[in-house]
């Protein structure tokens, strides 16, 4: 199958490497210097250092050429840009009159300015596109790049999109499950990043494993309340893209969002943390959007509120934890 991966960050690079084992895969980035480096060294030293990419993977700096590669009905376009870059990429496809027949995106979060989920951005910019969906689940790019086992879910209303994604990705150490709850999968992928910051703060303050378990469990309740209100199904949040992704991101040492929380607890400023991180931490980008949506729907999300207070309101991490502990007792 011809597959184009748009976006050469850590996740896009890892997925492209996996895809190239069994498909005619092209990895696109707008940075021509990065493409030159990838072509010569077969390693993404900026985002995925130490992971060798297969010789069969090809690289492209020309978006039109990458889109043309994924144009056929038997091809697939994988959008691996952050949520912040999704709308611009869709507009570039539309303006070039080269919208692929089948599109699957792997970004997680809400668009900060509009508070829209990725499928809503796609619908706004590529109105009437018949075959698109989201691929998500508990996954660190480095482990996928190294060929370690991983299980993901593709959610789409389109059977054709699910089939193309399954055919492209389901091989080797990667197992793909299918479903149609796009909203539930996207909400899980967005909110778990905010909750991972909270868990990082708790761990950084040395609050113990009891506190970590409580945060993950009550965080899952917050995620589920929001997701069901927005149209997702409750059972989605106990699956790979809900509980599974939350556990990984909240506890794994490779988690960027958990790292943000750990360093906030250590007294570092958010600006310094993000500058040193060098990668996108989607939980920071979408935390305010999650809280705004929750308030608009009168949904209680106290952990999310506490994270926003630390990130944006100057509240000390330990004070935010104390505020959570002072909340009135209630039925679970």
Structural account:
By secondary structure, this protein is of the alpha/beta class. The chain has 2 domains: 2-180, Rossmann fold (3-Layer(aba) Sandwich); 188-325, N-(1-d-carboxylethyl)-l-norvaline Dehydrogenase, domain 2 (Orthogonal Bundle), CATH 1.10.1040.10. The chain has helices at 10-19, 32-41, 63-69, 83-95, 118-125, 141-145, 159-169, 182-204, 209-229, 240-251, 256-265, 270-277, 282-296, 302-312, 317-325; strands at residues 2-6, 24-28, 58-60, 76-79, 103-105, 132-136, 150-155, 174-179. Strands 3-2-1-4-5-6-7-8 form an 8-stranded mixed sheet, with helices on both faces. It is globular. The model has no long low-confidence stretch (mean pLDDT 96). It catalyses: sn-glycerol 3-phosphate + NADP(+) = dihydroxyacetone phosphate + NADPH + H(+); sn-glycerol 3-phosphate + NAD(+) = dihydroxyacetone phosphate + NADH + H(+). Its main location: cytoplasm. Catalyzes the reduction of the glycolytic intermediate dihydroxyacetone phosphate (DHAP) to sn-glycerol 3-phosphate (G3P), the key precursor for phospholipid synthesis. Keywords: Cytoplasm, Lipid biosynthesis, Lipid metabolism, NAD, NADP, Nucleotide-binding, Oxidoreductase, Phospholipid biosynthesis, Phospholipid metabolism. The active site is at residue 192.
């Amino acid at each position: 199958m011809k597959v184009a991966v748009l976006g050469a960050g850590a996740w896009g690079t890892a997925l492209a490497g996996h895809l190239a084992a069994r498909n005619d895969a092209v990895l696109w980035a707008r940075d021509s210097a990065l493409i030159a480096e990838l072509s010569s060294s077969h390693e993404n030293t900026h985002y995925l250092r130490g992971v060798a990419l297969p010789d069969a993977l090809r690289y492209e700096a020309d978006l039109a050429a990458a889109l043309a590669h994924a144009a056929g009905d038997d091809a697939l376009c994988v959008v691996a840009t952050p949520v912040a870059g999704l709308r611009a990429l869709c507009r570039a496809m539309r303006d070039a009159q080269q919208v692929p027949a089948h599109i699957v995106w792997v970004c997680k979060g809400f668009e900060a300015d509009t508070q829209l989920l990725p499928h809503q951005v796609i619908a706004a910019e590529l109105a009437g596109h018949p075959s698109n969906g989201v691929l998500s689940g508990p996954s660190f790019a480095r482990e996928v790049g190294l060929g370690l086992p991983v299980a993901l879910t593709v959610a789409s209303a389109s059977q054709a999109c699910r089939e193309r994604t399954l055919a492209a990705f389901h091989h080797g150490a990667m197992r793909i499950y299918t479903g149609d709850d796009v909203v539930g999968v996207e909400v899980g992928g967005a909110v778990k990043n905010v909750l991972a910051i909270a868990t990082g703060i708790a761990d950084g303050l040395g609050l113990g494993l009891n506190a970590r378990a409580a945060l993950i469990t009550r965080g899952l309740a917050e995620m589920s309340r929001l997701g069901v209100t927005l149209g997702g199904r409750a059972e989605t949040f106990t699956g790979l893209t809900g509980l599974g992704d939350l556990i990984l991101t909240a506890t794994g040492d490779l988690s960027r969002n958990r790292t943000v929380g750990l360093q906030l607890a250590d007294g570092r400023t958010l600006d310094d943390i993000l500058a040193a991180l060098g990668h996108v931490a989607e939980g920071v980008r979408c935390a305010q959007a999650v809280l705004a949506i929750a308030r608009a729907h009168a949904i209680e999300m106290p952990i999310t509120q506490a994270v926003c207070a630390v990130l944006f309101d100057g509240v000390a991490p330990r004070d935010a934890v104390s505020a959570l502990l002072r909340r009135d007792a209630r039925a679970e």
